[in-house]
Amino acid sequence: MVQAAAMLSVLSCNTDGIGGGTVQVTTLDARYVTKSTVELCGATWGGVQNMLARGVCFSKDENVDFSDGKISVYPGEGEFSKVTHELEALTTYYMRAYAVMNDGAVHYGELKSFSTLDFTPAVIEIGEVTDILSTEATVNATITSRGDYDITSCGFVFSEEQSPEVGKDGCIAVYLDTVQDDMSATLYPLGLGTRYYVRAFAVSQDGTVYSGQTEFTTRDTPPVEFSEIELVDNDYTSITVSCTVIDANGTVTSKGFCWSGTENMPDVGDSSVELDGDMSYVIEGVMPNEVYYIRPWGVNEAGIGYGPVLKVRVRSYATSDNMVLVSPPQPVWIGWLGDPGYPANEPTFASANDGAPEVNQFVDRDMTAGPSKAALEDYMAAKYEVTCGDYADFLNLYGSRTVKDGPYAGKELLYYDLVHLKYDSSSGRWSAEPGFEDRAIGGVTWYGANEFCEFFGGYLPTEAQWECAARGAVYSDTEPMYRFSGSNNLDEVAVYNTGTEPPAEVGTKKPNQLGIYDMSGNAQEWTRTWWHNYSSTYKEPSAYMNANNISKTCRGGRCQRGVTDTFGVAKRDAMKIDETNAGKDEFIGFRFFCDPFEE
Known about the structure:
Layout: E1 10-11, E2 14-16, E3 22-31, E4 38-45, E5 51-59, E6 69-73, E7 78-84, E8 92-101, E9 106-108, E10 112-115, E11 123-130, E12 137-145, E13 153-159, E14 172-175, E15 182-187, E16 195-204, E17 207-210, E18 214-217, E19 225-226, E20 230-234, E21 238-243, E22 245-247, E23 254-260, E24 271-274, E25 279-284, E26 291-300, E27 303-306, E28 310-313, E29 323-326, E30 332-334, E31 372-374, E32 379-382, H1 388-398, E33 421-424, E34 429-432, H2 446-455, H3 463-470, H4 490-493, E35 521-522, E36 524-530, E37 551-555, E38 557-558, E39 572-576, E40 588-589, E41 593-594
Parallel strand pairs: 1-9, 35-38, 36-40
Antiparallel strand pairs: 2-3, 3-4, 4-7, 5-6, 5-8, 8-9, 8-10, 11-12, 12-15, 13-14, 13-16, 16-17, 16-18, 19-22, 20-21, 21-25, 23-24, 23-26, 26-27, 26-28, 29-32, 30-31, 32-41, 33-34, 36-37, 37-39
């Protein structure tokens, strides 16, 4: 073929150059294809002294040559690439790598093709492999462009074979917990002295995109080998772990444990300890409900090596036996939802059976304005109200009867003359009065309820969370929606009309649809919502706290009351949170809520 402009002669893929040895040209697969751009790639070997330029030519015609569109780079050996722009979407292009020599000859690589997309995918650049040890290595990458669609997951895939892919035989995918631009993961366990190929990937609704490939080879000397870690004790503020050295594989010069609350493959750069003798250690200063990753480390002739990872959630009030998952519909409606028996106020749901609407449920609104709404994520609610025994345990762990720090520092946790707890000054220990261990706590301040929940890794609920849990997360035109939490019969689900008798033992009545007890009656329960009239769209504005409004919303009925209407799931009360008013009450307790967790 003769080129009209330069009269260049065309040669095949492998051709002898003049004075520069054999020229070898290879067309590589295109990368990072979008709707209008592509990175074209090729490689040349030999003939550098007589090379004028090299690059890749491309066309919509299979008979692509140097006269078509092209990218060009400086002469050299090895792989090269360059991005070209202004392509047409949803179009197939053909390409060939080329090298132009001093004598006018053009040498081509094999013919390949690519097709542009109707969207721009994410772009990921693979980084260096660091901390290459005998059985693990740390891989890194960067998402340089997120493309047109949201990335739903990302990670790394590796194999002993080239071009690893997610789901391909012999390939192992490691997914990251979050999608962040800077990606990093520790690959473990790996084989000794083994070469691995790795690529980063990102998944969106239009499939999976990959970075370029990198490779590394692990050390061929075996590290110290450890047993699985045994969790010896888990006690709210400390974790005791132990393991053994199965095989030293030489001489162990140092060893210990490392741990982290954020890194799922901790190393000695995180929190760590060096141990002499037995591999047993008490990790102190942890907090209830926090998750920690722990693993042993040891140094021998192979350098530092690590053992298996143990994931531990620090012991908490929240356990799988004590908590239930609440999955609210969207949106959640709160307040009076109506009753077919009261036609003047149209029910929000045909199944709603909330009794007669009360004036305080419609303050500052027209009686027919309807309920308020909230968008809620999944959360966990305790099956039972916090008991006197639970609260005594908290006080012993907390070590103070006032809030220790934060915005409420110095506030009292309880009204000593109202709670059924006793304090032994000689031992410094709290305990429940005999017979009150399993009774719902009353006489705690709002600050005490809030501090209990935060100490154990949870929170007091918002008013919307409380009501959704009390309704059993049932909002339906066909499924029964009960007036009280779990029943239309108050006797079935509530402890009430007890007079001066303090809150009773928890869980003695029928639970609601979620298996939660006593939400209609026993102790009335604090929430974290500042008291305010319902707005047309429910919200939790901190501005509602001011000099004229220092009240939190309480929900649920109090056991000493006997008026049926006060126990409905839509009932709400305002209680001031200072220490000299209605919030000082032996019938007000609370319930623990938290985010979903894994044991």
